[in-house]
TrEMBL record:
Keywords: Amino-acid transport, Cell membrane, Membrane, Signal, Transmembrane, Transmembrane helix, Transport
Record-annotated membrane-spanning stretches: 294-317, 347-372, 461-482
Listed name of the protein: Amino acid ABC superfamily ATP binding cassette transporter, membrane protein
GO cellular component: ATP-binding cassette (ABC) transporter complex
Record domain ABC transmembrane type-1: where: 294-482
Database matches in Pfam families: BPD_transp_1, SBP_bac_3
Family: Belongs to the binding-protein-dependent transport system permease family. HisMQ subfamily.
Listed GO biological process terms: amino acid transport
Topology of the protein relative to the lipid bilayer: Multi-pass membrane protein
Length: 493
């Protein structure tokens, strides 16, 4: 085939892949938003799955009880009340704020309760309940030494102001502080860390949250801003077409507002947890968090490695195949995977393929995504190892009566593995570290647990340092193990 024909073939293959995915995802999407299905599924399963970003005290945050994570706060109490009124069990899914509406639209959660304002833009994608809480205003969270230096919009001219990505505060910075630079991050604790390290000069937050961080960190202070508050209040986000579920939630909200439960019950409960955290905020109580994260990281790494090796070997053999279709399918896959960010791949597997497999768990999606990504790199490692062997090895094997497949299996691959073992070792070590990326979809691996500790302790640097040391210990141990097997291979030569 000529070069032009190969290009045409590649484009046709890419178009076919897109064509196959589009109707499948469209069909599944339509199925998700079928009117009245969400409430029926909640009643049938006996579970109400609520999405939140639990780094926004006192509305939603985490506390440690007997070494276990407990989700607490005003919004969590509201979620519990809704589940109680429905007669079902509450399940909390903690993820980045900017992923919540995607999770809602793809059916990963039944509703979102996360200090979310029902803006006109959001209403185009999802439905909202009645307002259950109206914040009292926007505050700047500042380093205490900058209290009088950056307490107004004019003083922050030319400076960087942080806000949670996808939040109303981020939009307010862009619209009302055009002379300042907006810095968006998915987690509030990362914004606080950026503030303390001087990456941003201020963080815009709702009053209660800003005061919560200031009360728990003596180096910070909360100052009322001169931002024109554009918040209509907080509401529960629900998928479109679920009028019966909206009505059910509104029924609970009406009761909450009538009995003034936010002020009388929800806020005092949140304050109690925050006060307890201040008194008993030692890192020793968070050791189980790190052990849980290590366990999940190891599980993800092991299964991803298995997928990567099997898929990588298959793709490498396909590249050497004389069948042009198999060859170019492997080439297209490898180039596509290596040419797209792994974070995007993880999100696509969880939310995109989740269209078709509604019960696909976050950890399984993470393992699949990392394994599929690793397979492309392992394939190239194996290919380079095979190419490094003298051509006479294949010819000698064929002369001995071995088929092409058996020659690869018994002669070529074993020799190639010895040559590429260091490269494979580097891939496995990289894969262990890349497992941290699945924290974005709520998998409880080490980085996810580190973020929980940051949120619970109101400290940013120390949990990260501990996580860094743990990753080093794991990668160093894996390196020693790989070196051991490499030496064994050399002795067997």
């Amino acid at each position: 085939m000529t070069k032009k024909k190969w290009i045409t073939f590649f484009l046709a293959l890419l178009f076919a892949a897109v064509s196959l995915l589009t109707p499948a995802t469209t069909y599944a999407s339509a199925k998700k938003i079928e009117q009245g299905t969400v409430l029926k599924n909640i009643k049938k399963s006996g579970k109400l799955v609520v999405g939140t970003s639990a780094d926004y005290p006192p509305l939603e945050f985490t506390a440690s009880e007997n070494g276990k994570t407990r989700y607490v706060g005003v919004d969590i109490e509201l979620a519990r009340q809704i589940a109680k009124d429905m007669g079902v069990k509450l399940v909390i899914k903690n993820m980045s704020f900017d992923s919540l509406l995607v999770a809602l639209e793809t059916g990963k959660v039944d509703m979102v309760i996360s200090a979310m304002t029902p803006t006109a833009e959001r209403k185009k994608s999802v439905a909202f309940s009645k307002i259950y809480y109206k914040p009292s205003g926007e505050f700047f969270l500042l380093n205490k030494k900058d209290r009088d230096k950056y307490d107004t919009i004019s003083k922050l001219k030319g400076k960087t102001v942080g806000a949670q990505t996808g939040s109303i505060q981020y939009d307010e910075i862009q619209s009302q502080m055009k002379s300042s630079k907006a810095k968006g991050l998915g987690k509030i604790n990362n914004l606080v860390l950026a503030l303390q390290s001087g990456k941003v000069q201020a963080v815009l937050m709702e009053e209660l949250t800003a005061k919560a961080y200031a009360q728990n960190n003596k180096s910070l202070v909360a100052v009322r801003s001169d931002i024109k508050d554009s918040q209509a209040g907080n509401a529960v986000a629900i998928a479109k077409g679920q009028n019966d579920l909206v009505a059910q939630v509104n029924k609970t909200i009406n009761k909450v507002k009538k009995d003034k439960l936010v002020d009388k019950k929800f806020l005092p409960a949140a304050a109690k947890y925050m006060k307890t955290t201040q008194k008993n905020n030692t890192f020793a109580k968070y050791i189980p968090y790190f052990f849980k994260g290590i366990w999940y990281t190891i599980v993800i790494t092991i299964f991803s490695v298995l997928i990567g090796i099997i898929l990588g070997t298959l793709l490498a053999l396909m590249r050497f195949s004389k069948n042009p279709i198999l060859h170019w399918v492997a080439v297209c896959y490898i180039e596509f995977i290596r040419g797209t960010p792994q974070m995007v791949q993880i999100l696509f597997v969880y939310f995109g393929i989740g269209y078709l497999i509604s019960n696909l768990s976050a950890i399984v999606a993470g393992i699949i995504a990392i394994g599929l990504n690793s397979g492309a790199y392992v394939a190239e490692d194996i290919r380079s190892g095979i190419d490094s062997l003298p051509k006479g090895q294949m010819e000698a094997a064929r002369c001995l009566g071995l088929s092409r497949v058996k020659a690869f299996r018994y002669v070529i691959i074993p020799q190639a593995i010895k040559n590429i073992w260091p490269a494979l070792g580097n891939e496995f070590i990289t894969l262990l570290k890349d497992s941290s990326l699945v924290s974005v979809i709520g998998v409880s691996e080490l980085m996810y647990q580190t973020q929980l500790v940051q949120t619970s302790t109101y400290r940013g640097v120390l949990p990260l340092f501990i996580a860094m040391i743990i990753y080093f210990i794991m990668t160093f141990s894996l390196t020693r193990l790989l070196n051991y097997f490499e030496k064994r291979m050399k002795r067997n030569d």
